[in-house]
Specification:
Number of helices: 8
Order of helices and strands: HHHHHHHH
Largest sheet: none
């Protein structure tokens, strides 16, 4: 989304539902704390409760963006908040999983460390080039996020490393590589970029 479009959206009179996208984002943080808390109290030893809360958190992630676009308030600050809460929700969910299923510490820490390094690399590229954090929200990252939370849900219900673990790891690597290529290729900082291929098409004469 261009800076001009963002400026136009910020000039639109606020709707009575303007609180909804931010409320959905903040509720995701609360759901993450619920997952962490259940890891300690273990009211449901099957892990089903945490898996359901995880699904609710993913649903808020989907609908906050839909609501923001419908209400024409998808600003840069809101998208940055969404990205930061996404990371916080993921970390809280992982912490809850490690408390609930300590036997999965090895594979979970391995995957988490890999993703953290790749995330740091992408943000470093963005800060060096534009003095801003990366916020591409490209399609592959959304696809990867879906698989990542499916994996967490599977771990809560079935504490075993399956093909889904390795597929998610591979998708994560490819997604972050594409994000890094996007940040290296775009001439100026912007967010909501569909793919690296779209950036390349835009640069063609």
């Amino acid at each position: 989304m261009t800076e001009e479009k963002l400026a136009e959206q910020e000039d639109v009179p606020p709707s009575r539902l303007a609180w909804l996208p931010r409320g959905l984002i903040q509720s995701r943080l609360v759901l993450g704390l619920v997952i962490l808390g259940e890891g300690f109290v273990k009211l449901d030893p099957s892990g089903l409760f945490q898996a359901v809360v995880l699904v609710l958190g993913v649903a808020t992630d989907v609908f906050d963006g839909v609501a923001a676009r419908k209400l024409k308030i998808s600003t840069e600050n809101l998208r940055k908040l969404d990205s930061r809460v996404d990371i916080a929700f993921f970390l809280l969910s992982v912490a809850g999983l490690l408390v609930f299923r300590p036997g999965l510490a090895g594979p979970v820490v391995l995957l988490g460390a890999l993703l953290a390094l790749l995330e740091l690399a992408v943000h470093t590229i963005s800060f060096i080039r534009f003095r801003k954090e990366s916020s591409t929200h490209h399609y592959l990252s959304k696809f990867f996020s879906l698989f990542l939370f499916c994996l967490l849900g599977q771990f809560f219900l079935l504490p075993e490393v399956t093909w889904l673990y390795w597929l998610t790891m591979g998708l994560g690597v490819v997604s972050f590589v594409e994000s890094g290529l996007i940040m290296l290729t775009i001439p100026r900082w912007r967010m909501d970029i569909r793919s690296w291929w779209d950036v390349l098409k835009e640069r063609r004469p």
